[in-house]
Structures are given as C-alpha cells and as structure tokens.
C-alpha cells in the first residue's frame, strides 16, 4: 500500500514546518484592536501574506482573555507540590518558555517530539506534531492557596502580596461543590480551535512540572458559549439558547479597561502588603455548572423563554426587537404583567440590576459521560474575567442563586478564583535560567 | 449595540435554512465508492453545486462505519427500561426518524426547536440550531443483553435470534473494567466534525427515549485516531504516534466485504435459531483504554519506538521505509537482533500474526479530567467494526494483553460488543406509526 499525497488536517504550517523556518526568523505582526486587545497574530513565514492561526503569548496582557473565544478549552488546576520558592520560580520559567513555544505551534521543548536523543524522554509528547497552532492561548492564574496554604503556611514568601480580593469564594445558595473540582494553586486555561492542541498543551505543562506541580483537576469544554468579539456569532448553551449576547466584547475598549483589567489604583502598596504586581492583570472565576437537562427538556417552550427572558430562536428579549435590542424591563403586556419576568435570568443578570457590573465571559459547554442514574453529566463550564470579583461576581451570583428562575435547573459542582497576572512583555527573552516568566512581578521585591 | 452581519460558524446551510428548503425537495446524490461505501452526500439545494456535509442515514449498510472518520465522537450505551416489545419497536421507529432528520442537519422533530406550540416541550433541544449537519452519522448496535437480560429473561421475544457471536467479551489479561462503563442494551455511535452536533444528537435520542431507554454510560472523544479512507491523513494517538496506518480503508472493497460486513453465509437459519437479520451488518467492539501517559512521558524515545515498532516522527516501521511500507519482521540488525521487536505492538497486531485478521477501527482520543491522584484520565476510546469478533478481536486482544510491550501502559476500563444491523434501505419512509426502522429485520418473523 502506498501513501497518496495528503493534505494536512488543517491547511497551515505544522510544528515541524515551523521548526524548519525558525532560523529564518519569526515575525510577529500586531493585529490587536485598540485598548486591551493584546493578542497579535504572527506569520511563520514573513513572505506569506495569509493570516496564520497564531496568537503571540507575550503582550501587555495575557492572551486568552480578550482574544476572540476559541472553539474548545482544556482547563487545568494544579497543586504545587514543592515547598521551594526557587523550584516554583523555575517551574514558572519553564512553563513560560513552553507556553510561548506551543502557542506558536512549535513543540514544547527545543528537541521536539521525535528527533532524539534516543535515550532520553522526548521534550514534547508528539500528539500535536502534525497540527497547526490552532489559535492556542495559555492563560495562567494564581489561587489564594498559592499565597497561604491550607495549613496557613507561607511556603513561598509571598503571603504579604496576596491581593485582598483574592479569597476563597463564599458559599452560594444551592452550591453542590465537589472538593475534587475546586481550587488549585495555579490555574491554566488552554483555549484552541482544535481540542487536541489544547489537551496537548496542558499535558506538556504537567510533564514539565513533574515533581513540582500535579494536576488537581481538569475540565474539557467542547463548544464555546460566549463571544468576546463583535466579529463572532453568538453561540448556544445546552439550554438551547444563545448565550453571551451582552458579553463584554474586546472592541468595547472602555468597558475592558473598566471591568476587566486591574488598574494601578486598585493596588495596595505598603511595607506590609503590596499587590501592585497584579496591575494589568485580572481575576478569573471558574464554575462548573451542571444543568439538569433532562428536566429542562420536559419543560414547555413558554416556560423556557420565561426563565431566560429571551426568545429561543432569535435570542431577542421578550420585550421585543432582535438579539441585540436592549431589554425593556418596564414594558407590560396583558394584565399589566411585565413582558420580561423580574425573576428571569436576563433581568437579574443585567448590569442595571447589579450596579453596572459586567463580566467578560469565556464559558464552554461540557459533557462528561453520565451520572450512573441515566442522566448526562452536562452543562456549562463558566469562565469569567473581572477586575473586581467582590463587586462583579460575588453579589451577582448570590442574587442569581437565590432568585433566578433558572437556578432550579443548575447545580454548581466546581469552583475557583485566581489572580491572573499581566502579560510577559513583548520582546522578552524566555527560557534558560534567567528568562522572563509569567507573574514575575510577584516574586520581585 | 447593533449586531453586525455575521457569518454562521460554518459556511453551510443551517438547520433552519434546511427547513425552508425542505419543500423544494432534498436530493441525495450518490457519492459512495464501490463496495460497502454506503454513505452518500445530499445537497440541500438541488441547484447548488457545492458539496455539503451531509451523510444520508439510509443505505445498504449503516453510515458511520466506512464513512471517512469524522473528527469527534459521542458514544452512548442505553439500557432499555421497558419490558414491552411494542414500546421497543416504537422507540426504534422514533429514533430512526430522528436520526434521519438530524443527520440531514434538521431538528430532531418536525416542530423544531423554537416555533411552538408554546405549551409543549420543544421537539428539538436547540443547541445545534445554528450549526450545519457537520458530517453527523448515527450508528446503532444491539447488545447481548437486549436479547436475554441479566436475569435470563427474553423480554422482547428475540432470544432465539441472538447471533452466536454476540457474547459478553471474555475477561482479558489485565482488564480493569468498571461496570458503569460496560455493556448496554443498545449502543449509539454519534460521529461528527463538530462535537456539539454529536452531543446534541445523543441528547435528543435520550430525550425521545424517555421512559423507554436510559443512558447507561457515554463517552466523548475529541480527536480521531484512525483514518477509514485513503483520502485522510493518519492522525496521532496520545502516545504521540501515528495510529491506524494499516487500518482497513473504505477503498479496500474486498477487505471491507471480507472483514467488516456480515455475509449471508454467516447466518444460522433454523426454526430454533435465526440470525439472518444481521446480514449486511457488522459487530461493534468498544473499549475505553486508559493510557498511563505520565509514565509513558518519562520513557525514552528509544523505548517508545521499540514498543510501537515504528518511528515516532514518520510512523515508518523500524525495518525501514516510510509510513506505508510493509514491516519486515525478519530483518535483523546489530547482534542479529530483529529490527522490529517480536513483542512490539506492530508485530503482535499485524494480520500475519493473527491468521490474516484485520479490523476497521474508528477510535478517538479522550481526556476526562483527572483521577484524583494528579494524573490525567486520558487515553483511547477504541472502536472497531468486524465481521467476526471471535476471530478478529478476541484472540488478537488476548495476545496483545498478554504479550504486547505496550500493555504496561494501558488499562482497559470500559467494554462492550454490539451487533450492528444493516442500513435502513434508501427510499424508505420513516416516521409515523408504520415507518421503516433500524434493525427492523430482527423483529420480523
């Protein structure tokens, strides 16, 4: 049998192709919108005019936040299993270099997958060898437990730099959290348009971290439920409704500054407490929200639309218009009843009901087999980035969990909050023993 | 905020668009290769010349076997929870009609997702409303327990039609099966290029089956590990190696007849026992194979290649050549040692070592979070179609589990065998109370 000439799975430069071109110089061309859209697309071959699917890892902010939401996610929360500050820094340095390489579509290490030396383990695991970069972004966050562990220990000498807002999320009404899906010292969000590329990235970070970091939990999401750019069509969640219509989009530059990025004035900077390292960063909230889809599927269309406050087909508010029409909560219909139920999801989640608070959401649909009782374990892996979780997430979730008609069909089973540092500056040298690394400001006095 | 005009996620006709065109007639054009390649692609608009991403549900054989392997799978095993033969037949009739609709990119039911009546549950759940058919195929199989349940009962009056080869798979060396991932009365393999379309299909079959069928277990696979057409590039598994190089391809028409489809001479037809209903069908073997990837990742490239018997980069046998060169097991190198280890995977799985037996494989990579011990729960969801599991699967797996060097890195955690009936004939009327349904011959005396 002979091999016919075959196109690669995606018509882009592959990892191996990139290696060959590396010597010719990789040119990154800025394509970011103004205001916080920090990602750029790089062309592997400076002479090729076609856009590639590479988002540069470096930039003022980490990629994977305002980057147009990719189709798939593999999210992992790691426990740091060393007590050595030097080893933690070494880990972050190695992870930064690998992240920068993998987001360019290169192997995780210099040697690559397959070219020896034969008597050592490969420094890339290989399953993404023939795949393009697929828009991979890797976004790192630090959890409260990295600063002070469960025993109250300051393992890494950074307890005094823990931001006041970085707390364990409070218990919300009807939470059904599973400890094995909560917390973690460091979170890594791997988003890509090919799930194999996202899984490959997390797996190689775990491989590199062996002895220093251990996967606490991870979650695969297969379908994005938010748009983060006006250039993207609004996707649907597993309730069958369009989700994220009023999400913060990267093009809303003022909203991104006001509601996503931690600003200089948010920091406390005293001798005892200094959180200035987080300026330019954000907070990442993750919630694994199981939907009781079998029950939902037996509710009427009228009830479903009442709960959401929008029509199922177009996503327009029940007060009329199209998907992007502002809901009119005052408008009443027959019997002087409001057209949008005040306990609907759209009414309770609206910024007007929450002191103007919005979030930049990046959620994904998940389906993790079944629960042993004949029901699919499926729902929403909620991810949101906010400047201030104390005003933009905690009160909103308290309201929704208590009053939202939708809550009857939701069960929160996983949870975490992480502080996401600013980006590794463009032009930094990564790798080696003195490379620049993500979150470096946290470790500099 | 106004909505900019946006392209749909895939540049194909959406479900809703299809509905509008249905009245104009849906023309199916045959595009199957000779010999068992039963799938056809339909154009929604007879005047449009562009190929669509629809595989017709009807045909001599079920689609989803020789169909070029799609990128994603959602596999579900159902328990039948009714004891009524009439209800089982009704279920199969309803499932057939829904499958035919969904594989065309239409909603699962006539009313669709979103158009009322408002006081009934929608007859489609909606999350695939804006997505194309995405190459969806739905393939149905009947397990041993459908014929005779755990208590030995012949619930549906079909025990005498159970093929002799349809048995519970034996215990293999080093099996670590979890009961909650094994068996099931009816299996449904949903393959599609968009995972949301595959999940949507299984979920709607579960919804339609409420009260008659209950999901016993299900498995999401995100990356195909086999090609079933010479037109497809060979993908990689989570060991980082190319997988399925010597898989049966649909273009091998004689091999497909000999090794995949159950032939008339395979049937027993006596008054007491009649398995002729399975002619034109196949047997589906599914195995959830966890890989100990953390251990694998710390083994040397030399060891990895020795275990597989091929090079990691090109997939060529260690006896030389390129990916599609036949391995030469007699060739020796230094010290007169064979270049390909006789205990390597390629040597033990080769047809020459197994009486000429081959399989048509359709496996997928899976990653299901972590195991609570800091390791990813990841591996291969193995799916194979064979004409005779007693010669083409059971002895091969016995050999591999006992002798294959690779077995050290594998743990089989899920398992099942199902008899896959022939296809619903092209031109059949489905739906209503007398529609043709998948597996109908099993219920006809």
From TrEMBL, chains A, B:
Note accompanying the cofactor annotation: Binds 1 heme b (iron(II)-protoporphyrin IX) group non-covalently per subunit.
Cofactor: heme b
Gene Ontology terms describing biological process: iron import into cell
Catalytic reactions of this protein: heme b + 2 H(+) = protoporphyrin IX + Fe(2+)
PROSITE patterns: DYP_PEROXIDASE (PS51404), TAT (PS51318)
Statement: the UniProt record of this protein carries the keyword Signal: yes
Domain of life per record: Bacteria
One cellular component (GO) term of this entry: cytosol
Domain Dyp-type peroxidase N-terminal: start-end pairs: 62-222
Molecular function GO terms recorded: ferrochelatase activity; heme binding; metal ion binding; peroxidase activity
EC number: 1.11.1.-
Entry-linked SUPFAM superfamilies: Dimeric alpha+beta barrel
Record-linked NCBIfam families: Dyp_perox_fam (TIGR01413), tat_substr_1 (TIGR01412)
Protein name stated in the entry: Deferrochelatase
Provenance organism: Sanguibacter antarcticus
